[in-house]
């Protein structure tokens, strides 16, 4: 049998507790040869509070935990009977592992080593103000969000003309 990634459903808000409980059970029940990694997929999001920007970690899938394991009756029992676990995700009686591309898509940097860019709460057409850099104080409308580069392209009015501008996510804030 080969190992695969399985998704378990937990009580919402108990993901980290389930991860800790399951890691403890794996160790105490000698299941290290069948249950390998337990992860709560997280991502960084840029949050603005009281005018200050900071990166915060948020759960990608609240209520779910990923487990890398070899599925046997014993390993299923250990995971399924961990406090806080409500069941495996999947149809039928036998849980089905995620496909490789699904795992890469969900875990991103955890598997590929490429850091993920922070998620932002900005949208095309939104009015923003540039908060730092040479264009500080200018306001404009977002024309394009370049997620892969961590930048936004906006149009600002400069000297009576619309001028395109490209700045980092962290250099703009929503207009109030």
Automatic annotation (TrEMBL):
One of its GO terms (cellular component) is cytosol. It comes from Sulfobacillus benefaciens. It comes from the Bacteria. This is Transcription termination/antitermination protein NusG. CDD domains: KOW_NusG, NGN_Bact_1. Participates in transcription elongation, termination and antitermination. Keywords: Transcription, Transcription antitermination, Transcription regulation, Transcription termination. Pfam families: KOW (PF00467), NusG (PF02357). The keyword Membrane does not apply. The lineage of its organism: Bacteria, Bacillati, Bacillota, Clostridia, Eubacteriales. Gene3D superfamilies: 2.30.30.30, NusG, N-terminal domain. Residues 2-110 form the NusG-like N-terminal domain. InterPro entries: KOW (IPR005824), NGN (IPR047050), NGN-like_dom (IPR006645), NGN_dom_sf (IPR036735), NusG-like (IPR043425), Rib_uL2_dom2 (IPR014722), Transcrpt_antiterm_NusG (IPR001062), Translation_prot_SH3-like_sf (IPR008991). NCBIfam families: nusG (TIGR00922). The gene is nusG. Belongs to the NusG family. Residues 121-148 form the KOW domain. GO terms for biological process: DNA-templated transcription elongation; DNA-templated transcription termination; regulation of DNA-templated transcription elongation; transcription antitermination.
């Amino acid at each position: 049998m080969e190992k695969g990634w399985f998704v378990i459903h937990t009580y919402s808000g108990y993901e980290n507790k389930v991860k800790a409980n399951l890691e403890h059970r794996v160790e105490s029940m000698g299941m290290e040869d069948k249950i390998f990694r337990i992860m709560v997929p997280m991502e960084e999001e840029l949050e603005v509070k009281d005018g200050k920007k900071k990166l915060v970690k948020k759960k990608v899938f609240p209520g779910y935990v990923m487990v890398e394991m070899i599925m046997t009756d014993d390993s299923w029992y250990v995971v399924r009977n961990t406090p806080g676990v409500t069941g495996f995700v999947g149809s039928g009686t036998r849980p089905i592992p995620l496909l490789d591309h699904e795992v890469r898509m969900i875990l991103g940097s955890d598997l590929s080593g490429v850091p993920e860019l922070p998620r932002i709460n900005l949208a095309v057409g939104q009015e923003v103000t540039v908060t730092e850099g040479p264009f500080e104080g200018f306001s404009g409308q977002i024309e394009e969000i370049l997620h892969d580069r961590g930048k936004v392209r906006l149009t600002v009015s400069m000297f009576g003309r619309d001028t395109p501008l490209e700045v980092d996510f962290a250099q703009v804030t929503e207009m109030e």
